[in-house]
Amino acid sequence: MTHRPRVPSHSSYRQLSFASFKRLLKPSLVRRLRDAMGSGRRQRKLGLIPFLWLGVCVAAHHAQSSLGGIFEIVRSDTGPRRNALPTVSAFSQYRKRFPLRVLRMLWREITRRVALRCNSDRPCRLWTMDATTLILPEDLWSIFGNHSGTQGHGPTQGMLLVLYDLAGRVPVGLRLGRGRQREKDLAESFWDRMQPGDVVLLDAGFLSYHVYCRILARRAHFLMPLRKNSRPKRTVRLDAGDWLCRIERGKYWKRFPDLPKSLSLRMVCSHRPGFRPRWLLTSILDHEKFPAQSMAQLYHQRWHVETFFRDFKHTLASQHWHARTLRGLYSELLFTMILASLTRLVMADAAVAAGRRPGELSFSHALAKVTLAFDSLPGLPLARWPARYRRLVREVAQCLLDVRPDRTFTRDTQKRRRLRRRKLLLQGAEQVLSKAA
Asked: How much is the pLDDT for 284?
């Protein structure tokens, strides 16, 4: 008679010491998350807190090729309680029916806590938003399609638009659309989140009369670059490279009588050594309080969302998806945002404790420290949690960025084209040689 290995029951999942992970969440938040889950669900046997912890661990080890490999890493870190962990099948079945609104509530609460630590002395909020292309599972081709530049021959691609808080360096909102969708169409639901006095930094893809009006209707401000062929009508010269201009409503927008016929905006010239001069368009008209140089420096802060996309795709390895359904994809995406926000929350605590700014700390190094701490939480007694978190904050405070202020270079706009032409020539030569052989 063969001895079959003991399979852990659902009740054994609750024997893990998830109280240490629960300390990151307030009891009132846990009650609200449980209420949002609803009642009468058979899939609740795994439990809310164990599922959230497993989802964060899966996001932290996204580079693994399968969920089985991730669970093996997690089991090796939990020590003697590894047999009490759920199986991959149990986690996948639970994720299929788990309400996404619960994950959004958790993400919103974490970003709110980051904002309280970083925006306490700021009179207004500083936002930016941008979009990037994601490679998605082939099973979602019928929903997303691919990018228009691939002409139907590329992989499944989606357009991810992220609303980013520049003070806390944390994403606060996302929209996922088709690969051929425009950025300003995805951003329609974000304009209502703007409050009076907020400033949003945008790129040239958001240039639209309708976008200007939507932001100004919220009594917020914007700052974005003009295209090279844009020629707004200049009205008043404020300073060197600083003008007031008037933008008329186009023929297309005349069908919308609620939009004003014209807008009085401001043009600012931004020029850095080694780069071409560029004109910025803004609704901040006070040139004495906000001179042209400060507006140009403010716009350079928008680059932080580009570094976030680099961390999102490479550091967090979010191009490796384990889900094959739309609901599973959104679940993995939200867990990745929760992990990034939790890392930023620890970085904010570390910056306050060390007397530094959150921007002086390295996200990739801090993520490695946070991942090691989170993997060992179920086997950590509750009494040891405060000391473990203080040690984590001290470790993250030492993860400093390598700042090189004198590192400058001239931008080579033709470098990418030369490399592309060289690659095509090599490919053509290989094809000729293969045919000759």
From this structure: 94
- Spell out the SS3 assignment of 51-89: HHHHHHHHHHCCCCCCHHHHHHHHHHHCHHHHHHCCCHH
Nearest to 186 by CA among 212, 166, 209, 205: 205
* Closest C-alpha among 6, 15, 3, 81 to residue 47: 15
The SS3 of residue 227 is: coil
* Number of Cα atoms under 13 Å in the Cβ half of residue 93: 13
Nearest to 244 by CA among 268, 224, 262, 278: 268
Question: How far apart are alpha carbons 264 and 248 in whole angstroms?
Answer: 9
Token pair 């164990």 is found at 50
Count the residues in the chain. Answer: 437
Q: Could you tell me the two tokens for 223? A: 């700052």
d(CA 307, CA 310): 5
- Looking at the predicted structure, is the pLDDT value of residue 148 above 80? no
CA distance 105 to 101: 6
For residue 14, pLDDT beyond 50: no
Q: Please tell me the distance from the alpha carbon of residue 254 to that of residue 260, in angstroms, as a whole number.
A: 9
Among 280, 210, 284, CA closest to 249: 210
